[in-house]
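SAMPLE LOG
Freezer: B-3
Tube label: C17
Construct: single chain, 356 aa
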Amino acid sequence: MKGLILSGGKGTRLYPLTYTRAKQLIPVANKPVLFRVIETIHDAGVDDIGVVIGSTGPEIREAVGDGSRWGVNITYIDQPNPLGLAHAVKTARDFLGDERFVMFLGDNVIQGGITQLIADFADSDWNCQIVLKEVDNPSAFGVVKLGTDGNVERLVEKPADPPSNLALVGIYMFDHHIHEAVDRIKPSARGELEITDAIQWLVENNYRVFPYVHPGWWIDTGKPIDMLEANSLVLEEFTPHLATDALIENSRIDRRVIVERGARIINSTIHGPTIIGEHTLIENSYIGPFTSIYHHVIVQNCEIERSIVLENSIIRDLDERLYGSLIGRSTTVQRKDEKPRTLTLNIGDHSNLWLI
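STRUCTURE (predicted):
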């Protein structure tokens, strides 16, 4: 069985962060989402993985490499234009051959992994397995309506009037019949080859499409609020750990905190679940729950809670608590004069923000 990860999107909903970084490489709990997807597929026993890339391909190639760090083999597949998920399958045809494969969107985070799903599909005579999740806003997703017998009845992409609240979560398993389906469908009104249309073709032609309704959490990390929610959920599942070479001086750290190697915590309070990255300095500060601070960051005289701070950033001398914020790489946030009492910021990489 092979794996196919789709990492060709531009991530416009995450601007300004994705002006300078592929959205799949933005970290959740100090690990890029794409790395988590690769690990999830590898943990399920799939080691031959194709990664579909687009305009951010060079950055993804540099970050992922050949996959050897995870014990997998990575093949890169160029998709010059993002013309739909089914088009990505079409683009990957030579890599996939006639083997069964799992397709995973590279910006998704799911609880519990897919090991059992892969095993179930491998041992079945199903032609396709789709993963579904009940959502509050189904019109934002591909939606599936199940019949009274529990079988798939209809799929529709981002419907104005959703026939159910069951959304496709971006994890699919296919056999070779999907290639015929992709060849038979036409572009949608938005000019894309929709994977929902391809799966609908399988249903209408009496192929076996098995729906699995996921009971745990799932996050599509397409928007800043989704990144923060995914970060919180992943942090809750972490096992606390203090690196042996981390410096903890005159500070209070509760039991749900990870402090990575070379970090320094001085005269500060850290409440988890929280992760402090490698060679980061936290001084005279409070870091509250659901916060991820990446490597080589400096935080001094600040309070930060439920936020993500990326690498090489400096945050200092804030009177207000920084809450619900995404701070990009090599960013400086510091006070010039006292004024507002709260902050919520989405700041791009290499920015300088002075508070006046």
